[in-house]
Design a protein that fits this description.
Order of helices and strands: HHHHHHHH
Largest sheet: none
Number of helices: 8
Distance between the termini: 6 Å
Radius of gyration: 18 Å
């Protein structure tokens, strides 16, 4: 279901996020990830845990959709492919770290420590961006309006093919 949501909402999220700067997206998404992670870790009700997971997921989609554009804008032309390749390993690396962490934290007796650890990583990242000059650039992602952005997308055959490939890929998880 989450793959289908990503397919359906990814382009809209990209259009919406294109109005914000990297600094704002970083501050809001990681700030909300920290808050939702802590709320989920200390919650005693299923509804709060569920809301926390949804909020974390929305923030995750915001980062996944917006950061590749940012990376491609700040990386030198000759380094762009390498920079985006490095970015693309964050999901397998994150899953691997989560699995390893769950093994190491399981003797403590609660899954809640994983959520706390995720919040700690988000805090470290958010603090790290405070000292990075590229994050301080207050440049929006695109200069087109949202309708112009979609029109350019729909008229580009390469983008449509890429969207089709991603849709087929996402449907394998349904």
């Amino acid at each position: 279901i989450f793959s289908l949501l990503g397919v359906v909402t990814g382009a809209f999220a990209g259009g919406f996020l294109s109005k914000f700067t990297v600094r704002r997206i970083t501050n809001y998404t990681f700030g909300l990830m920290i808050i939702s992670g802590i709320c989920g870790a200390f919650s005693q009700t299923l509804s709060i845990i569920f809301i926390s997971r949804i909020l974390e997921g929305v923030c995750f989609v915001a980062v996944v959709v917006s950061y590749p554009t940012f990376i491609s804008r700040v990386a030198a032309t000759k380094d762009r492919a390498l920079a985006l390749s490095i970015w693309s390993v964050f999901i397998p690396l994150g899953f691997s770290l989560a699995l390893l962490s769950s093994i190491l934290l399981s003797p403590l007796g609660s899954w809640r420590y994983l959520w706390i650890l995720g919040s700690i990583f988000a805090i470290i990242y958010l603090l790290g961006t405070r000292f990075h000059s590229l994050i301080d650039k207050n440049i929006p992602y695109v200069t087109k309006t949202i309708p112009g952005h979609y029109r350019a997308f729909l008229l580009n055959r390469n983008f449509l093919m890429l969207a089709f490939i991603f849709t087929v890929y996402a449907f394998q998880w349904i």
